[in-house]
């Protein structure tokens, strides 16, 4: 497979809107408020060299995911394509079926590019869903307007497992095609993001038959049918690993693993029912795609941060209930973080949005931070607030200067 040459992220970062430039005043190694975030670790010093980072053609987001020096934190939003955008709502009127919108190459590309065209984020996530691959391994589903995801035949008994088969990636050709086109369309100016659901989170839908508030069926299955649940999770682990590799080979620069409902488990249960399967995925994917950063997001992850790090991912996605400075202290310097502005801020005055972005960036420190919301953009979010979020984030500099990128990067070295 050949891709058009990617523009250097270094050269694409020059001009900033001067009215928005803000000196963040980060702490140096000597004056370090958040020691964990700045001290270089053996892992980092071994693999990361300034000259390599600066001449690299990787998009800014990939560099930040790896902990390489960057002049500003790259920024994108979860659910940045969707119902809050008028242009999406108009398209959805014409194509009312979610499955049609997310399984037709032209529509996937068009929707994924809507936020790219409007806001120029540093990451362009493919318009898809964590449930999209299910029919390719034997689990049909639908997304209903009010109920959300619906699995017609949930898996709850040994016999139900017979429906499962190895993932048939040909059935997901639209994902591969779209990633390939997106990679060409954004031309190296942003990272193309692929994503999957983690086995536990996917299993909550397959077992419960759809969205749940209580997770009682699957949680009781941990005790009443542990072998059945383990078989299902192992099947999902294999299918999801193959699906990630397919996404990377099709053009994804970086993969988000959403264990959105992992935070519904008590931490010791997460250790048993989610972590080993994610760890296995990370190890299989690393083996095949060693350069692709993996990001793990869990909704409500305050009790899981250190445990998440144990999976071996490159980046921990933080929801907004964890303070960024606390997360940095707890996670140490050898892992990157993503997040974590409360999505509700986008309903507040724009000045409050600006302040919160500055606060989060300052707490995160100059390395290994991808700016994002703590969860997805909420329905009803004003588009102007999203535009403002991106304008402000892209105007910020780690050292306050604007033009000379290599100077900026060298000042960041600690
Ligand atoms: O939100 C998360 O926690 C991220 C993980 C996740 C996704 N889908 C990723 C996604 C989860 C848990 C889902 C399941 C799902 N799918 C739900 C949530 C239901 C519940 O249990 O609470 C819903 C409503 C869907 C259906 C769906 N997926 C719709 C209607 C849309 C369109 C966008 C919107 O929200 O209006 C999606 C798209 C989607 N799901 C994306 C992602 C990463 C799109 C890519 C993006 O722009 O981020």
Automatic annotation (TrEMBL):
Gene Ontology biological process: chlorophyll biosynthetic process; protoporphyrinogen IX biosynthetic process
GO CC terms of this entry: chloroplast
Gene3D superfamilies: 3.20.20.210
Key words, A-Z: Chlorophyll biosynthesis, Decarboxylase, Lyase, Porphyrin biosynthesis
UniProt xrefs under Pfam families: URO-D (PF01208)
CDD domains: URO-D
EC number: 4.1.1.37
Catalytic activity: uroporphyrinogen III + 4 H(+) = coproporphyrinogen III + 4 CO2
Quaternary assembly: Homodimer.
Protein name (record): uroporphyrinogen decarboxylase
Annotated organism of origin: Gossypium tomentosum (Hawaiian cotton)
